[in-house]
Amino acid sequence: MTVCSTDSSVASPFSATGDAYAPYLTARNWIGQQWCDPSSPTTTQEVLNPRFGKSIAQVRMGSSADVDLAVQSGAVAARAWSKWPIRDRAHVFYRLRELMVTNLEELSWLLSHENGKIFSEAKAEVEKGIECVEYGCSLPNLAAGNQLEVSRGVACEVVYDSLGVVAGITPFNFPMMVPLWMLPQAIVGGNAFILKPSERVPLSTMRLAELLKQAGLPAGVFNIVQGGRDVVEALCDHAGIRAVGFVGSTKVARLVYARASAQGKRALCLGGAKNHLIVVPDADLELTAENVVASFTGCAGQRCMAASVLLAVGDVDHILASVRDRAARITPGKDLGPVTTQAARDRIVHFIDAAERAGARIVLDGRRATADVGGFWVGPTIIDHVTTDMAVAHDEIFGPVLSVIRVPTIERAIEIENASPYGNASSIYTSSGDIARRVMASVDAGMCGVNIGVPVPREPFGFGGWNDSCFGHGNITGWDGYRFWTRQRKITSKWALQHDRTWMS
Fold this sequence. Notes:
Layout: E1 4-5, E2 29-31, E3 34-36, E4 44-49, E5 54-60, H1 64-81, H2 86-102, H3 104-115, H4 119-142, E6 147-151, E7 154-162, E8 165-169, H5 177-188, E9 192-196, H6 203-214, E10 222-224, H7 229-237, E11 241-247, H8 250-262, E12 266-270, E13 275-279, H9 285-297, E14 307-313, H10 317-328, H11 342-357, E15 361-364, E16 381-384, H12 391-394, E17 401-407, H13 410-419, E18 422-423, E19 425-429, H14 433-440, E20 447-450, E21 466-467, E22 470-471, H15 478-484, E23 486-494
Parallel strand pairs: 8-9, 8-11, 9-10, 11-12, 13-14, 13-19, 14-17, 16-17, 19-20
Antiparallel strand pairs: 1-3, 2-3, 4-5, 6-7, 7-23, 12-22, 15-16, 18-21
Helix pairs in contact: 1-7, 2-4, 3-4, 4-5, 5-15, 7-8, 9-10
C-alpha cells in the first residue's frame, strides 16, 4: 500500500543563495501530484553535494511496483489530457516558463548544490531548460496537421495523436535541462510522462514537479519514480508504457534501447561521446584558445558535448601554448566545479596516470587540485603527444581532460575522428571557409561546429548524435522530439460524388 503525503512543503523552495553547505529534503516518488514513499520497504541513498563530498539529502529508492502505480495514474490522466486542445496543453508550459523565470536564482542554486556545477553554469542550464519550454509553447503552431486535395474531391490529412503513457530516464550531469528536452514535446503532445531521474540528482525535478502543478498541469500527467536499475528495467518492460527516452552512457543506452524495443516500445537512447576538435595553423589564436578551454573544462568536463581530443594539424604550438596558459588560470571552486563522486575522480586520475606511463606528456596537471571545502576535485589537465593506442585517445573520460594528438594533415585528423565508434560532435578551428566546408562534409558526427567547441544546436534545431552516441532514429529535441512522442493519424475523406473518375473513385 502506497503511503502518500499531501504536505505542500515537501518540495519547498531551496533556501541557499550561495555555495555554503545547505541540506534539502528527502526525494520521494511523485504520483498523482502527491509525494509518495515507495510501495514496499526499500533502500535509501545519500544525495551528495560534490563540492563538499557531503550528503545534502536522501532519496528513497522505488521499485517496479512504484512504476506500476505511476503507469496507472498516468493512464487515467492521459485519457482526459489527450482530449484537451493542444493550445490549452501548451498554455501550461507558458505558465511554467514564467514560474521558472521567477524562480531562476533558486533553481540555479539547487542545481549547483546537487550537481556541483558552479553557479553560472547551473544558471545557464536552467536558462537552456527555459528555452526548451519555450519550444513546447510553440508546438500548437508547428504541429498543425497538413491537408491536401490529392484527387478531385478527395482530401488527405495528417494529425498527431498521443501515445498514452511514456517515460524518460535522465542522467546526473544535467538534472534540469535533459528532462526538459523531453517533457514539453511529450506532454504538449497529449501524453502522460513518467520520469526516472538519476538517483544522484533527484532534487531539481522535485521542484519542477511542484512548478508544473502550480502551472496548472492536471494530476497524473507528470509522475516521478525514484530508483536505480530495477526501475529502469521496469520502465522498459511495463506493457502500459508506449515509448522510452534515455540519456546516459553508451553501455546503458544500448541495453535500454534493446530491452525497450524488444517489448515493442519506441525507444530513443542517447549515449556517450569522444568529441574531437581539429585545429589548423590559420585558426584565430584568441578565439580558439578561449573556446577550446571552455569546451574541455566547462561543467568539469562532465557533458557529452565536451572536447576530449584536440587534433593538432601541423605547427600549432602557439595555439596550444595559449590554451595551456588560459587553462592554468582556472581556479577550482571558483571557475571550475568538482566532479560528481570520489569514484569519478579516481577514474579520471587513473586515465591521466596511464597516459603518463605510456609516454604522453602532462603539460598541465590537475591531479592534485583541491578546494578548501573538501569534495571531489580534478583541475584542468592537458596531455600532449598522445597516440591513438592510448586509452585517453579513445575512451570517454568525462572530466576536465584534453588529449592532444599531433597529426601532419587534415586528412589524417579526419581519419582519426572517423575511426571513433562515437559520433556525437566534431569541430574545426580555422579561418578558411574551404577547410571548414571540407571538414564539415567529411566528419562522422551528428553535431558539428566551426570555431565552436560545444556545437549544441539551439531550439528549434534538434539534439542528437550518430553511431554509438545514439540508438534509435532522429533527435530528442526539436520537431523530431515531438514526432517521437506522438503518432501520425492519416485521414482520407471524400464528401461528394465526382463525375470524373480516378483510381480513388
